[in-house]
Amino acid sequence: MPFYHKLGTIPHKRHIQFRKPDGSLYYEQLFGTIGFDGMYTNSYHEQRPTQVKEIKKQYSVAPKIAVENNIKSYRLKGFQIKPEQDYLESRKTVLINSDCAIVLAAPLELTQNYFYKNTDADELLFVHKGSGKLRTMLGNLDFKYGDYLLIPRGIIYKIDFDTEENRLFIVESHRPIYTPKRYRNWFGQLLEHAPFCERDIRKPETLETHNEKGGFLIKVKKQGDIIEMVYATHPFDVVGYDGYNYPYAFSIHDFEPITGRIHQPPPVHQTFETDAFVVCSFVPRLYDYHPQSIPAPYNHSNIDSDEVLYYVDGDFMSRNDVEAGHISLHPAGIPHGPHPGATERSIGKTKTDELAVMVDTFKPLKLTEEAMKIADEDYYKSWLE
Ligand SMILES: [Fe+2]
Questions:
Q1: Residues 309-328: pLDDT tens digits?
Q2: Homogentisate 1,2-dioxygenase N-terminal domain: which residues (predicted)?
Q3: Which whole-number Å values give the CA distances from 52 to 218, 230, 235, in the listed order?
Q4: What CA–CA distance (Å, rounded) separates 258 from 269?
Q5: Centre of ligand 1 from the C-alpha of residue 343, in Å
Q6: Is residue 204 a contact partner of residue 7, using CB atoms and an 8 Å limit?
Q7: How far apart are CA 212 and CA 318, in angstroms?
Q8: From edge to edge, which strands make up the β-sheet containing 5-8?
């Protein structure tokens, strides 16, 4: 996150002696990105964070690709993904390219007896159903319906649900996920025209510090594999940290929509950016107010990006047949637009209650076998009169 945060106890300067009450040293860890050029955090640990005790096993969780080269529009019925007990096993990758993976999950319970770390990708979790607590080595965040949770790569975490019905829409990104640059001034502060500001971003405010030795299982994701590593010390043993690289939460309900006299293009909905895809939030808003405005979007060609819409709530004005939990995939290379009748139906309407998350990728997406299990194969014909 491009602003400074400090939690717990830290010494006056970086890289100097920082002693425990018994006189021994705390162990400093620089947690940085993009070599030494990106955002970083300096954290202070009770134990050395390097103590690998055992590597138990390694196995692939890479998704099986069903459709490699795609030009067909699809609808995926996301709520048909079956709930599963385990958090990691419940995660089903449905769309993927070399930059990102789009994952649906319906976990029934918390990450019980292990910790998890994704070393390859920043994880953006959108909470569609459920509530609980994200617990990380850099502090905890309470979450509920409508929250985006951004977990930078390398953060060790657990996720505790206090609900049984949980639905997550997840983007794993090999590119760092940032707030859009055009929303920030040259100091990094969010500008007046941005649809959210620093007050809307929830940073970790409580730190869990366990000074424990034993065997602690961390499931580490790297290059499509899970490696089960046992560490000799508790991964949540940080007494303090400061810096820019930490997990945070942002509620879609705090996104302030930008509206106009005529139809506004998708970038007004942008929430996050990478150099490989964008994430946008479509939220309840007033419609365009030109006397002859057409609130439904115009037909458009994604010449060079695949468009993924995840429907969260409300009535989606441009479609006749979408429900909460559905994903539409409109691939690059062909135009798409409102369903027959949706344009006419939108005229005269003054507001919408729709809630949706959009991911537009610059490289084409492949469909996985998990996607084909929940795919509507005839959706591509749904614009026929
Ligand atoms: Fe579109």
A1: 999 998 776 666 789 999 99
A2: 54-251
A3: 10, 6, 11
A4: 7
A5: 14
A6: yes
A7: 55
A8: 5-8, 238-243, 40-45, 27-32
Q: How far is CA 49 from CA 57, 250, 282, in A?
A: 20, 29, 41
Please give the Cα distance from 146 to 88 (Å, whole number): 21
Low-confidence ranges of the chain (pLDDT < 70): 1, 111, 317-320
Residues in the chain, how many?
385
Confidence at residue 111, expressed as pLDDT on a 0 to 100 scale: 65
pLDDT of residue 317: 64
Residue 363 near residue 302 (C-beta atoms within 8 A): no
Of 354, 359, 344, 323, the C-alpha closest to 257 is: 354
Rounded to two decimals, the pTM is 0.96
Reading across the β-sheet that carries 100-105, which strands appear in turn?
65-67, 366-368, 91-96, 100-105, 167-173, 122-129, 147-151, 248-251, 201-202
- Check if the beta carbon of residue 131 is closer than 8 Å to that of residue 145: yes
User: How far, in Å, is the centroid of ligand 1 from the Cα of 253?
Assistant: 22
CA 354–ligand 1 middle distance (angstroms): 15
Q: How far apart are CA 162 and CA 383, in angstroms?
A: 41
State the distance from the centre of ligand 1 to the C-alpha of 328, rounded, in angstroms.
9
The pLDDT value recorded for residue 175 is: 92
